[in-house]
DNA sequence: AATCCTCGAC
């Protein structure tokens, strides 16, 4: 029965799994702790954390005691939905019931901290693991390296990798993939390549994830031919069994304005009959939005929703960008409101898109109001605003923003700096131009 | 446990 339930749960057939359990009970086979643990994992994953809890009550009612794996499944569920306090509660509950947390309980908790951008706390969990003398699993290092990279501590991740290797740890393929991904993301393509060589030299065979990661790295560094070559090799080796690699190529084509080619790749995705996830849908929706076909974009969104997929912050950002490009600010605002209501972790990119759309349509003051209301801004926010103000010959306002951008330690394009200085000088504010220039120099010295 | 998706300008 357990094997049957497990395989049904794996493919999301929860109702059928329940039928199997009922049938089992009818012929006298009672579900045990393994059955319930399998169910909890699946319900947390496919339905929600509360559905997982309700299975916990069901098992308690049936007189089955939860074990470490029961709690690990629930902790993993809480991590999936970024519910840190739930993770803690479950940990406490475990200890109260004298169920000992194992390395996986700690791994998951660490993962949760990293996910919520609390690397210090995550590292404390790791130290706790060492202190408690629990034997470490290779996944512990993978989670650590990944978490450090994703939180901007690539250098520390590298040091950790080297140090554990010196201590005899043999990196897995996944460890290399994680490190290569982190290095690419922080713009260190060269070091990433060195690790790709090391991966092969140490006897690992690169998998689809390695290829996709390296391909994206090529695109990032504008080595388009090299990237497309990797894609061709993936096809040759049969590594294009899902839509992931196609999405990487299609997005690059979209970003570089090659609409027809992007269309071609997305056509493959559709005709190949891949089981599309929300990311693939977002990629296609983005193409429609960029082409101004908002109707088709919405049609696709509904299709995704019919499949039970939930739109994420990327989906709404793509729509906001597309709507602003067609001048439909009202509907774009509705998406923005929805994003805040849903409490997505950040809508910075969406706001940048909105501001850009307003500027392009000539609504500079509306854009400025939105700019002022933002509590988090990045270099793109400043770039967009400074550039647009210069275009409108509002150089003094542009210089004010440029200075606060520099004060915030953010980089801005050389051409934008030039635009402000030349503009100020050309409209008779040479003293202010000099002031801006010296501030830029000062910032450069401080930065280096 | 890890890969795929969003914004400015050049």
UniProtKB/TrEMBL annotation:
Transmembrane segments: none annotated. It comes from the Eukaryota. Coiled coil: none annotated. PROSITE patterns: PPR. It holds the Pfam family PPR_2. InterPro entries: PPR_rpt (IPR002885), TPR-like_helical_dom_sf (IPR011990). The keyword Signal does not apply. PPR repeats lie at residues 32-66, 67-101, 102-136, 137-171, 172-206, 207-241, 277-311, 312-346, 347-381. Keywords: Repeat. GO terms for molecular function: mRNA binding. Belongs to the PPR family. P subfamily. This is Pentatricopeptide repeat-containing protein. It comes from Solanum commersonii (Commerson's wild potato).
């Amino acid at each position: 029965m357990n094997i049957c339930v497990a395989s049904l749960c794996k493919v999301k057939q929860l109702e059928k799994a329940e039928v199997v359990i009922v049938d089992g009970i009818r012929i006298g086979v009672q579900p045990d702790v393994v059955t319930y643990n399998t169910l909890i994992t699946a319900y947390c994953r496919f339905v929600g954390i509360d559905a997982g809890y309700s299975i916990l009550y069901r098992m308690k009612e049936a007189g089955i005691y939860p074990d470490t794996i029961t709690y690990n499944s629930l902790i993993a569920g809480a991590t999936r939905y970024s519910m840190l306090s739930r993770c803690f509660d479950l940990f406490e509950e475990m200890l109260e019931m004298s169920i000992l947390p194992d390395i996986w309980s700690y791994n998951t908790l660490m993962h949760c901290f990293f996910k919520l951008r609390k690397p210090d706390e995550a590292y404390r969990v790791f130290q706790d693991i060492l202190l408690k003398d629990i034997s470490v699993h290779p996944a512990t290092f993978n989670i650590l390296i990944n978490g450090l990279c994703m939180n901007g501590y690539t250098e520390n991740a590298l040091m950790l990798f080297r140090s554990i290797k010196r201590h005899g740890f043999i990196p897995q393929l996944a460890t290399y993939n994680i490190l290569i991904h982190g290095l690419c993301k922080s713009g260190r393509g060269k070091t990433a390549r060195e690790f790709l060589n090391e991966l092969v030299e140490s006897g690992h065979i690169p998998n689809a994830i390695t290829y996709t990661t390296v391909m994206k790295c090529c695109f990032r560094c504008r080595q388009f031919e090299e990237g497309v070559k990797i894609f061709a090799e993936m096809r040759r080796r049969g590594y294009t069994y899902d839509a992931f690699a196609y999405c990487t190529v299609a997005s690059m084509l979209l970003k570089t304005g090659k609409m027809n080619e992007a269309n071609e790749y997305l056509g493959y995705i559709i005709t190949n009959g891949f089981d599309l996830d929300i990311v693939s849908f977002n990629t296609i929706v983005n193409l429609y939005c960029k082409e101004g076909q908002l109707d088709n974009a919405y049609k696709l969104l509904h299709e995704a929703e019919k499949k039970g997929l939930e739109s994420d912050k990327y989906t709404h950002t793509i729509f906001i960008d597309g709507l602003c490009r067609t001048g439909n600010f009202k509907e774009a605002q509705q998406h923005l409101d929805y994003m805040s209501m849903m409490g997505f972790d950040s809508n910075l990119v969406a706001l940048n898109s909105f501001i850009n759309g307003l500027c392009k349509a000539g609504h500079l003051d509306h854009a400025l109001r939105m700019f002022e209301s933002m509590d988090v801004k990045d270099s793109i926010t400043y770039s967009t605003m400074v550039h647009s103000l210069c275009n409108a010959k509002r150089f003094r306002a542009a210089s004010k923003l440029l200075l606060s951008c520099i004060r915030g330690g953010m980089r801005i394009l050389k051409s934008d700096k030039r635009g402000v200085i030349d503009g100020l000088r050309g409209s008779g504010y040479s003293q202010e131009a000099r002031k801006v220039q010296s501030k830029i120099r000062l910032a450069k010295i401080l930065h280096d």
